[in-house]
Specification:
The protein is of the alpha+beta class. The chain is about 40% helix and about 25% strand. The strands form four sheets. Strands 8, 11, 13, 14, 16, 17, 19 and 22 form an eight-stranded mixed β-sheet that branches.
Length: about 650
């Protein structure tokens, strides 16, 4: 063999041997990946077979083992695919799966985090299924199972965070297989609340009596008559739970016996001064003790005063405040329920209008029957609650647990449900999640909470729309706040009256269309000082005390210090209430400005415009959320039904 042929053979061997090795490598890898894919497909079939009659009827050991098997397959898949991941960005030409290839690494990361979390929870799943199939109450079983899964729930928190981050960044979701695409709306709905759900699952057993019976005072607030923690306390109830089961659930009106009150007046203190000045209240009763927007503070006072009015009531483990919007949100999770006493079904779409109509006197009521109607006018609250309770207990296995859990978390996030617990451990966890209703300005940042309190004995808030316009100038450290109130009822010729006469001719609509007697408080950043504000004088013939009010804004020097005013909004009119004040320098530090825009409990979706002007000569770098930037000013257009955190970074 001459040198030329020998050289060609050597070159060929140098090329062919690695090529053969590479081909063998890909063949082996392909075969291993095929085997794993077949295993996963077999597992999918086994899951469908096991759960054909519902997860609650699946074999506990086999179900847990399937979860472990899927985890093992994904671990193998990662191991086999890892050396090939560098190649996936170049495989977009492949049929069917090509669009997914550039993000193959992300999908593997999702599978890894998801199956690792499932593997952690497999023992919990097996225990829960065994207890359920032994005849246990589904809710009690769920709570007891969660109570034993605290460490597992804590362990999966990093995996849930990974799933949220990776899933949110995927660009190829539309190219996923059809069966998977059908799940994406639910994933997009429930994944953002997964963190809160895991946190809630760790305290839910204790809240609902898994470790011993619990009794709560339920506060029923009417957000059509806005108060600091949501609305006027139209009723109260006692909720007794043990092992997740409702032992007792009863409601009563917040109406009081005037003669008893007079005879026992020495038991009650004077209310906060604005309640006396604007509502002419001589006593502080539990139904008016939700005066403070800081819910834990109001809750403690309510529990104290409830015990005075109802001496035989139990020592409650906490207080749960609910409003009308809560019922609507809850029904979005449970589905419609039939209320026999009202002879109709109520759903999230119609429950508020149904409750308003149910308040009205019956068409055939006579004047001599007015007292009976007046006493029973709020009984529909208990009727609706009983129907929802029946829905939860009759066949809980048919409930959409994710939808129900999502509804409860939404209620807490939007502050249509607030929970106060006397248990320090639970209270700390509620505070950590932001579900305790505490309203204290944070340190070293800006803060804005606008609190309306209806002091006209009507339901006018249900017809009033509120918009907020807030400007913070970081050059002068000044703020300008304008709150606009638009009364959507038709204009009226008769003068405003601050009280309602409950005759048999009254309708709920009449109270919605009434003048809004509004006591407003503005809670700014700690250290702010009032400079000026709009003036809204009120004539003496329009007030309960028959004393005129000058309408000047004023400062209430209690912790936290805040600004206040009182005014009337007539039907068919728009009123603007403004404040100018000095901000502390600490609201912006090292080129970062932060604002906590806090949502008032009971309020629905509101519009807010926030304008942040950075110091002269500075350039805005980033904003969160997105804003319109015009020179040195960032403008945020917000529709918010929960707290919003705003951040502006800038460079001098």
């Amino acid at each position: 063999m001459n040198n030329t042929k020998r050289r060609r053979l050597t070159i060929a061997l140098i090329i062919l041997i690695p090529l053969c090795l590479l081909t063998s490598f890909f063949a082996v890898k392909g075969w291993r990946l095929y085997q794993i894919a077949q295993s996963l497909q077999t597992t999918q079939t086994e899951i469908e077979t096991l759960t054909a009659n519902g997860l609650s009827n699946a074999d506990p050991a086999a179900t847990a083992q399937l979860v472990r098997d899927v985890r093992a397959d994904v671990v193998d898949l990662q191991k086999e695919a890892k050396p090939l991941l560098w190649l996936t960005p170049y495989l977009g030409w492949l049929p069917r799966v090509g669009p997914l290839m550039p993000e193959a690494r992300d999908y593997l990361q999702l599978a890894d985090a998801g199956t690792r979390a499932g593997d952690q929870l497999a023992p919990t799943l097996e225990t829960g299924l065994r207890s359920l199939q032994a005849g246990g109450d589904p809710i009690g079983v769920a709570l007891n199972t969660l109570a034993g899964a605290t460490s597992a729930l804590q362990a999966i928190e990093p995996d849930i965070a990974t799933i949220q981050t990776v899933w949110g960044g995927l660009a190829s979701k539309e190219s996923l297989p059809w069966a998977v695409r059908q799940l994406t709306p639910k994933i997009d709905t429930y994944l953002p609340i997964a963190d809160e759900g895991i946190e809630a699952a760790q305290i839910l057993p204790s809240l609902l009596g898994a470790n011993g019976e619990k009794q709560y005072l339920l506060l029923i607030q009417n957000d059509d008559e806005r108060r600091a923690t949501g609305g006027f306390v139209s009723g109260a109830g006692r909720l007794q739970v043990a092992d997740g089961a409702i032992i007792a659930l009863e409601f009563h009106s917040s109406d009081y016996d005037l003669q008893w009150l007079i005879e026992n007046s020495e038991l009650f203190d004077w209310p906060p001064e604005p309640l006396t000045r604007y509502m002419n209240l001589p006593y502080l009763l539990y139904r008016d003790a939700n005066y403070w927007p800081d819910f834990p503070k109001s809750a403690e006072k309510i529990l104290e005063l409830y015990k005075v009015e109802y001496a035989n009531s139990p020592d409650f483990d906490g207080l749960i405040a609910l409003d009308q919007q809560f019922v609507s949100i809850l029904l979005s999770g449970t589905g419609a329920v039939y209320v026999p006493e009202l002879d109709q079904s109520v759903s999230s779409d119609n429950v508020i209008s149904v409750m308003r109509s149910a308040w009205n006197p019956p068409e055939d009521v006579q004047q001599n029957e007015r007292g009976e109607w007046f006493v029973d006018r709020k009984s529909f609250v208990g009727d609706v609650a009983k129907a929802i309770q029946e829905r939860l207990l009759t066949d809980p296995t048919q409930l959409d647990v994710l939808a129900l859990g999502s509804a409860m978390i939404e209620s807490l996030e939007t502050r249509h449900m607030q929970i106060y617990s006397a248990d320090p451990t639970i209270a700390a966890k509620l505070a950590e999640l932001g579900w305790d209703g505490a309203a204290l300005p944070p340190e070293d940042s800006d803060y804005l909470l606008v609190v309306d309190s209806n002091m006209g004995y009507n339901k006018a808030n249900g017809a009033v729309e509120r918009e907020i316009d807030y400007s913070a100038d970081l050059q002068t450290n000044t703020a300008n706040l304008v709150v606009q109130y638009r009364h959507t009822a038709n204009a009226r010729s008769q003068p405003c009256t601050p009280n309602v006469q409950y005759s048999i001719d009254i309708r709920y609509r009449d109270m919605l269309d009434a003048c809004l007697y509004n006591f407003v408080r503005v809670y700014p950043a700690t250290g702010s000082t009032l400079i000026d504000g709009s003036v809204h004088p009120t004539a003496g013939n329009l007030t309960l005390t028959e004393e005129p009010f000058d309408g000047q804004p004023f400062v209430i020097d209690e912790s936290p210090t805040h600004f206040a005013n009182f005014f009337i909004v007539n039907p068919g009119t728009i009123l603007q209430n403004s404040y100018q004040y000095q901000l502390p320098a600490s609201v912006a530090q090292n080129g970062v400005y932060r604002l906590m825009l806090r949502k008032q409990a009971g309020a629905g979706m509101e519009i807010a415009r926030v304008h942040v002007t950075v110091p002269s000569g500075s350039t805005i770098n980033t904003t969160t959320p997105a804003a319109t930037i015009n020179g040195a000013t960032a403008t945020f257009e917000l529709a918010f039904d929960r707290d919003v955190e705003i951040e502006v970074t800038y460079r001098p």
